[in-house]
Design goal:
The complex is a heterotrimer.
Chain A lengths: L12 E10 L2 E11 L4 E5 L6 H9 L6 E6 L2 E2 L10 E4 L11 H11 L5 H11 L15 H13 L5 E5 L7 H18 L2 E6 L2 H7 L2 E6 L2 E6 L1 H6 L4 H6 L4 E11 L2 E6 L2 E6 L9 E6 L12 E13 L3 E7 L5 E7 L12 E6 L5 E4 L15
Parallel strand pairs in A: 3-8, 3-9, 6-7, 7-8
Antiparallel strand pairs in A: 1-2, 1-4, 4-5, 9-10, 11-12, 11-14, 12-13, 14-19, 15-16, 15-18, 16-17
Helix pairs in contact in A: 2-3, 2-4, 3-4
Chain B lengths: L9 H10 L11 H12 L19 E5 L15 H10 L2 E5 L5 H14 L7 E2 L3 H9 L19 H4 L10 E14 L10 H4 L8 E4 L2 H11 L10 H16 L3 E5 L3 H6 L5 E5 H10 L4 E4 L5 E9 L7 H11 L2 H11 L8 H8 L1 H4 L8 H5 L1 E2 L6 H14 L3
Parallel strand pairs in B: 1-2, 1-3, 5-6, 5-7, 9-10
Antiparallel strand pairs in B: 4-7, 4-8, 4-9
Chain C lengths: L23 H28 L1 E2 L10 E2 L4 H42 L4 H9 L6 H12 L4 H7 L14 H25 L3 H9 L4 H30 L2 H6 L7 H11 L3 H26 L6
The complex binds adenosine-5'-diphosphate and magnesium ion.
């Protein structure tokens, strides 16, 4: 309606210690987050970790049990959804089945009494390249088209923040890849804050400037894709983003910018800057592609045995068993220096200290591993 | 038209009574389509009497009887009909007793198609009211009775022995009878209702209900207008009575035109005075500590009867006759009378009823004396043309 | 009708064509066809044929011969215009009232009832567990002059002693409304329940307040239920005669009462058939126009 006041706040979106309880169950647990204005932000986490709940609180569809939400200076914690300058692309698009595509997109404009609806809608449809479908009904569109209409319907309102709840979840892999690029392009064109919820780490890494990894209602770690991948600070993040080898170890000394640790009689070095704990019991982490089948380096393990090998095109993937029966994953690029080992071959492993990180040893080694990251 | 239902809870009684409308309410909302199917079967009635019907009574020891609801003595505890049981054990004939007649017209509508083509309607005795019995006989849908099988036939009350539609009772025997007259709420009308002026007194405006049974309502009005409904009255005289009825409806004196459910209107206060049936008011009176009463109008009331007939399609006529004979035994008739409280067709049952219930035996509603009988008339038989035109005029008058 | 299309994006699956010529579909259709012929086509034909018959002077009651007298229709209609028009007015009023009552009820059950949903649904259909007739009779007691409602109303200073509810048009329309309410409620419930709650959230997200969401999303999406419910109420209500017979007076009779009377009491089958036919045809025309107008087949 024309006389409805919609907030025109701009600025960063700030969640301050918000929680959401369903009975005794904490769906979101004391979560704080700042999303910089204009950024493409991804909220990444396994299914059930509270992503949708968080998003719904931002949209105003759910009220936080505790905590506050601000856009810039304005507290929007209890503001009605239809007053928030926030729009959502719903998980299953939630297009209005009884309205044409044009009217779907025009819906928010009409409610706000915008004058030139047609021009705005046409622009939005052009942005998602579906102008020719304006007179169809949603039921006559493919999944990918519906998805883009859902984006157009939200974006046409020029919200301060656009929330996308697993917007690509229902699409097949190829279409998903294509849409990832498309969404990224749209975000750059319109320049508004996108909060993109996904459980697909690859998707998050491809699209987002900043990723917040969420687990059991809390943020585990926030940063750029590279930060999170190269320097995870929890076992969950290490495992959830790509694959990771984690070795239980003891810190022997912390000096000269490096920590010296031992595991089963082997000694390894980690730059102190990459050790995220004060604890002496740590998990030593190294990514599979950082391991080399050699024995020259400072960090090395001799007398290992190849237990499995699989060829995956650009690389060969080995499973290598250490003398103390721990299986590590090794990726070797398929270039000149190829070793071409067989199962049962004796081998040594080595890696650079700069590629090593140290995590708090009190964590579960397998946290975050095998959590529907390729669904 | 129904037995004593005092033994039931009041609400149940009220609901049962509501179902007992003599005009059809139970046919359900199917009338629209029903009119098509049944009418198709019903058109072009044919003479089928005797055609291919062989009495197999001696080999098939059964008789199937369709009667009105709550119209035969019933043992609530044993869940049996005692007088029927007596008959079964005495004769070895099995009786299938059903309360399938809710309304003369709808019952006729249901069976007429089969009667017309001579296919078994599933009953060996049916119990329509006089005028409908007349139609059955006239259309050849009733079999002639063999008096030799009904020695008790002679017990029939004199006024019932020679009726216009069946002189000598060759096709039918009376089951029970009743009067139509004025009923009223004693608390609201202490001085009673004995004349048409009493009925339509200004104080009763909008609280009068009359029967939807043409012969009773118009029969009472005709007598008020000095016309004998049992005599050869003319169409003009009939239409005068219709005009009188129309006038009272238009003036808002008559609130509803109803079947049996008028007794409910009396109970819930919608009606303070009615044209109704003796039996109903008799029961209402005893159920409500004398709150209601009944009188035959000074200008005259009507007498109606329900009659046992053997339909033309029955192959168990002899068994049916034996059953009729059984119920014309004074002792058996008294047992039924003690239960249903209508006029007993067997006068000799009075001393028998005295043994069961002396108070009932003295009731002029069950054993009317000559003076009571002199105040009532039986509506005369109508020709087919009259029946069609008069019924149409009556139904139009009551809004249909 | 409109239920065939689904709202979700996955409805565009491939349609399987007929692969080979087979008798199976026809065999499967047979019982339905036989049923249709026996209980619909045949009665319709016989109804049509009866409607133009004439009763020869002096013939037995219920005897009619075919004379193709189409004037029966004109006679029947002219003689009963009043009840005819009244039927449609009462049915329309009852339909509107039922919609007004059933919509909030169905809405509440669909969206707000939580774990009580099934109990409430059972309560909606509970009246069906007793006979239509008995329920209507019960109304005469509730609305009677000495019943609870009138007695209570009479306590009010401005209600005078002659106040009554039974044997009034009000009682007949109320009875119709009450008796057909479940037919309105259930289709409404079914269509409301099918609405994806996320479309309602999306509407709120797109700046519509609760009322606008109701008007712009909920109502249009429940339109198939509204159409189905109003038809299921209006059609039987227009042909009903129980309510008018039990709750009305001689001036509130409907066309169903006339048909019933002509058929059973007067045994005037041609008039009854002509009236039934006219009623059926009128309902059919009204329904067709209505469905055209509401455009239900395009909905959803
Ligand atoms: N309305 C609700 N009532 C109870 N539990 C809920 C409700 N909504 C969500 N939850 C629970 O909260 C947790 C987080 O849900 P959600 O935010 O949808 O997860 P995600 O979107 O990350 O998959 C889940 O365990 C879910 O079962
Ligand atoms: Mg989710």
């Amino acid at each position: 309606m024309a006389n409805q006041k919609v907030s025109q706040d701009t600025g960063d979106l700030v969640l301050n210690r918000i929680s959401k309880f369903y009975g005794d169950f904490k769906a979101v647990d004391d979560l704080s987050l700042t999303v910089p204005d204009g950024s493409f932000f991804a909220l990444l986490g396994p299914s059930g970790c509270g992503k949708t709940t968080t998003l719904r609180m931002i949209a105003g569809l759910e009220e936080p049990s505790q905590g506050t939400i601000h856009i810039g200076e304005t507290d929007i914690t209890t503001q009605k959804p239809y007053r928030r300058n926030v729009n959502t692309v719903f998980q299953n698009y939630a297009l209005f089945p009884h309205l044409t595509i044009f009217e779907n997109v025009a819906f928010g404009l009409r409610r706000r009494g915008i004058k030139d609806v047609k021009a705005e809608v046409d622009k939005a449809l052009a942005l998602v390249e579906l102008g020719h479908l304006a007179e169809r009904k949603p039921g006559q569109l493919s999944g990918g088209q519906q998805q883009r209409i859902a984006v157009a319907r939200a974006i046409v309102n020029r919200p301060e923040v656009l929330l996308l709840d697993e917007p690509l979840g229902a699409l097949d892999l190829k279409l998903r890849r294509q849409m990832q690029i498309e969404l990224k392009r749209i975000q750059m064109e319109v320049g508004i804050t996108f909060i993109h919820v996904t459980h697909d780490q690859e998707e998050a890494m491809t699209m987002a400037d900043t990723i917040a990894v969420m687990n059991q209602g809390k943020i585990e770690q926030m940063g750029s894709a590279t930060d999170l991948y190269e320097a995870p600070r929890t076992a969950f993040v290490a495992n959830f983003l790509g694959q990771c080898n984690l070795i239980k170890a003891k810190v022997q000394s912390r000096a000269g910018g490096k920590a010296v640790v031992t595991a089963k009689g082997h000694t390894f070095e980690i730059p102190l800057s990459r050790v995220s704990t004060e604890n002496d019991s740590i998990l030593l982490g190294v990514r599979p592609e950082k391991l080399r089948l050699d024995d020259k380096g400072i960090n090395s393990i001799k007398d290992c045995v190849v237990t499995d090998r699989s060829f995956v095109g650009t690389s060969t993937q080995y499973l290598v068993r250490t003398p103390w029966d721990l299986e590590l994953v090794v990726f070797e690029q398929n270039d000149e220096g190829l070793h071409d080992l067989r199962v049962g071959d004796k081998v040594s492993l080595e890696w650079d200290p700069e590629h090593t990180f140290g995590l708090d040893g009190a964590q579960d080694v397998n946290a975050g591993a095998d959590l529907d990251d390729d669904e | 038209m129904k037995r004593d239902i005092e033994s039931l809870a009041p609400e149940t009684r009220a609901l049962i009574r509501a179902q007992l409308t003599r005009r059809s309410l139970l046919v359900g909302a199917g009338a629209v389509v029903g009119a098509g199917t049944l009418a198709a079967c019903g058109t072009g009635g044919s003479e089928t009497e005797g055609a291919g019907i062989v009495d197999v009574s001696d080999t098939e020891k059964i008789v199937r009887w369709a009667n009105w609801p709550l119209y035969l003595d019933f043992d609530e505890d044993a869940k049996v009909y005692p007088t029927l049981q007596q008959f079964e054990s005495a004769t070895g004939i099995t009786v299938t007793y059903t309360e399938d007649i809710d309304d003369n017209n709808s019952f006729y509508g249901k069976v007429q198609g089969q009667l017309a083509i001579g296919s078994d309607i599933g009953y060996d005795i049916v119990t329509p009211t006089d005028w409908m019995a007349a139609r059955f006989i006239e259309q050849g849908y009733a079999q002639e009775l063999d008096a030799a099988n009904i020695p008790n036939k002679g017990n029939i009350r004199e006024v019932l022995a020679n009726v216009g539609f069946d002189p000598g009772r060759n096709y039918s025997l009376t089951w029970q009878s009743g009067f139509a007259g004025f009923g009223w709420n004693v608390q609201k009308i202490p001085k009673g209702v004995r004349t048409m002026e009493d009925l339509f007194a200004p104080a009763n405006k909008g609280r009068v209900v009359v029967l939807s049974e043409l012969r009773d309502t118009i029969g009472v009005i005709l007598q008020y207008q000095g016309v004998d409904p049992s005599g050869p009255f003319t169409e003009d005289q009939y239409m005068n009575a219709i005009d009188f009825l129309k006038g009272k409806i238009a003036d808002g004196f008559i609130r509803k035109v109803r079947g049996n459910s008028y007794s409910e209107d009396l109970v819930n206060g919608d009606a303070v005075a009615v044209i109704g049936w003796s039996g109903d008011l008799f029961i209402l009176k005893s159920e409500n500590d004398g709150k209601f009463d009944f009188a035959i109008p000074e200008s005259g009331g009507t007498l109606w009867s329900d009659n046992m007939l053997v339909p033309s399609t029955s192959t168990h006529k002899k068994n049916a006759e034996l059953l009729m004979n059984h119920y014309y035994d004074p002792a058996v008739a008294a047992e039924v009378a003690a239960y249903v409280n209508y006029i007993c067709p067997v006068e000799a049952a009075q001393p028998e009823l005295e043994k069961i219930d002396p108070e009932l035996a003295a009731s002029p509603f069950i054993f009317p004396d000559a003076e009571t009988l002199s105040k009532v008339k039986v509506f005369r038989a109508l020709t087919a043309d009259e029946q069609t035109n008069f019924q149409a005029a009556f139904d139009e008058a009551i809004g249909n | 009708m409109a239920f065939l299309h689904t709202a979700t994006g996955t409805s565009s699956g491939p349609k399987s064509g007929i692969k080979s010529k087979s008798w199976t579909p026809y065999l499967l259709l047979a019982p339905g066809l036989i049923w249709l012929i026996t209980f619909f086509i045949f009665p319709i034909i016989s109804l049509a044929s009866t409607s133009t018959m004439v009763r020869p002077e002096g013939a037995q009651i219920g005897t009619y011969v075919q004379e193709l007298r189409f004037a029966n229709y004109i006679d029947a209609f002219q003689a009963n215009q009043e009840q005819y028009i009244r039927s449609f007015i009462y049915a329309a009023l009852a339909t509107i009232l039922a919609l007004a009552i059933a919509y909030p009820l169905a809405y509440m059950i669909a969206f707000k009832s939580g774990k009580y949903r099934n109990i409430l649904l059972v309560l909606v259909v509970a009246p069906f567990f007793t006979s239509f007739l008995l329920r209507t009779v019960a109304w005469t007691q509730i609305l009677g002059d000495e019943g609870p409602i009138v007695s209570t109303l009479k306590l009010l200073p401005f209600v005078d002693e002659s106040m009554r509810l039974t044997s009034t048009p009000f009682a007949v329309v109320s009875g119709l409304t009450y008796n057909f309410l479940p037919f309105m409620t259930l289709p409404l419930y079914a269509s409301l329940e099918r609405i994806d709650p996320r479309t309602l959230e999306a509407s709120g997200d797109l700046y519509a307040n609760a009322f606008t969401t109701f008007r712009k999303v909920t109502v249009p999406l429940s339109l198939p239920g509204v159409v189905a419910g109003t038809l299921l109420t209006f059609i039987p209500a227009a042909g009903d005669y129980i309510n008018a017979a039990i709750l009305g007076n001689p001036n509130t009779r409907m066309i169903g009462n006339v048909i019933e009377s002509r058929f059973f009491a007067v045994v005037d089958y041609p008039t009854a058939a002509a009236l039934s036919f006219t009623l059926m045809a009128t309902i059919l025309i009204l329904v067709t126009l209505y469905i055209r107008r509401t455009n239900t087949d395009e909905l959803v």
